[in-house]
Amino acid sequence: MSKYFDENINRHGTHSVKWDMNEAIFGKADVLPMWVADMDFASPQPVIEALHQLVDSRILGYSFAPDSLYDTIINWQTERHHLLLKKEDILFSPGVVPSIAACIQALTQKGEAVMIQDPVYHPFADMVDMNERQLILSALKIEDDQYKMDFVDIEKQIIDQQVKLFILCNPHNPGGRVWSADELTTLLNICQKHHVKVISDEIHNDLVYQPNQFHSAVTLKESYASFVITLAAPTKTFNLAGIKNSMLFILDTDLREKIKLQQAKAEMSNINTFGYAATEAAFSKGSMWLDELMLYLTDNLDIICTFFDKELPDVFYMRPQATYLLWFDCSSLGLEDDALMEAFVTEGKIGLNAGISYGQQGAQFMRFNFAAPRETVLEGLKRIKHVFDLHQGHPLS
């Protein structure tokens, strides 16, 4: 199936955020976009066929989630992640970020403290700030070339700042860490001790590289179900980001009713007809495609790491344990963050994510999306090296 992933699909002119907004985002039209987290691969054929069948019905009226959809979600989570769900545990939402907003609104009051880690996916901070909660940051530490949690800092700040809610990213974006069962248990025990509710964003849970083992946070101890909300979606797994659909898994009845009420206030509990159809097709018939995808991404990642080790041996990078995102350190270039982005855009002609957007701990880092045909990945690596070759030993401010 490698030919399936090697295909270069022309996305220009499709209203693609990734490919048709270069000038608006980077100020130049000729950059190679390897930033936003969608893939340059065709989605699974069963999903395409299900959507064709829906369109062929010729009437796109109101729809609801059928029992067969709930069954596929339950089966997938049971088989892949040992997360045992019932139909009533599943709520739908247009996306993970709207779900985070709904949880913040339902579980905290204005001015109350919400903790996230630094660096982390930037909409976490955006949702806390825009909902007028107090943002509390706990810096991740780099040990053994990977991010680690600072549990002493987390507990101290939870006590000092009276934190009410913790937003966890597992697997971590942008670093690609798959938090271990011990790490998650330590974190959740702290939160349980201090009555802090937890949102666990697990949208990348299917994109884990061997031999790493993903653990859904709520599965680690029965008592965690009373305060942990799990967020998941098929969108990253099967490249369906444009079909707005995600799920909240809430095992505790009281907690679930609070979120349902908040969703009802904003009419946010339904998704579109295409989301229902695509999700069911993906979870029921997409396993083989996903397995082949992970083999292809693993090969891409091996090529990238070999390239950095050979061509850019002094550049620190984190080999991701999950996701299709490489997080690498550009501090050796001696450029401020704005100038760093400008160098990659102007000199490298490549569009990456600026690490500073993920928090102060992300300063001087860049994020590189390698979910693309091998030819594109190799071209992206060449452009990254070009920037380092121009500036190494000649730092500019």
Automatic annotation (TrEMBL):
<dbReference type="Pfam" id="PF00155">
    <property type="entry name" value="Aminotran_1_2"/>
</dbReference>
<keyword id="KW-0456">Lyase</keyword>
<dbReference type="GO" id="GO:0030170">
    <property type="term" value="F:pyridoxal phosphate binding"/>
</dbReference>
<comment type="similarity">
    <text>Belongs to the class-II pyridoxal-phosphate-dependent aminotransferase family. MalY/PatB cystathionine beta-lyase subfamily.</text>
</comment>
<dbReference type="InterPro" id="IPR027619">
    <property type="entry name" value="C-S_lyase_PatB-like"/>
</dbReference>
<dbReference type="InterPro" id="IPR015424">
    <property type="entry name" value="PyrdxlP-dep_Trfase"/>
</dbReference>
<dbReference type="InterPro" id="IPR015421">
    <property type="entry name" value="PyrdxlP-dep_Trfase_major"/>
</dbReference>
<keyword id="KW-0663">Pyridoxal phosphate</keyword>
<dbReference type="InterPro" id="IPR015422">
    <property type="entry name" value="PyrdxlP-dep_Trfase_small"/>
</dbReference>
<dbReference type="InterPro" id="IPR051798">
    <property type="entry name" value="Class-II_PLP-Dep_Aminotrans"/>
</dbReference>
<dbReference type="InterPro" id="IPR004839">
    <property type="entry name" value="Aminotransferase_I/II_large"/>
</dbReference>
<feature type="domain" description="Aminotransferase class I/classII large">
    <location>
        <begin position="40"/>
        <end position="384"/>
    </location>
</feature>
<dbReference type="GO" id="GO:0047804">
    <property type="term" value="F:cysteine-S-conjugate beta-lyase activity"/>
</dbReference>
<protein>
    <recommendedName>
        <fullName>cysteine-S-conjugate beta-lyase</fullName>
        <ecNumber>4.4.1.13</ecNumber>
    </recommendedName>
</protein>
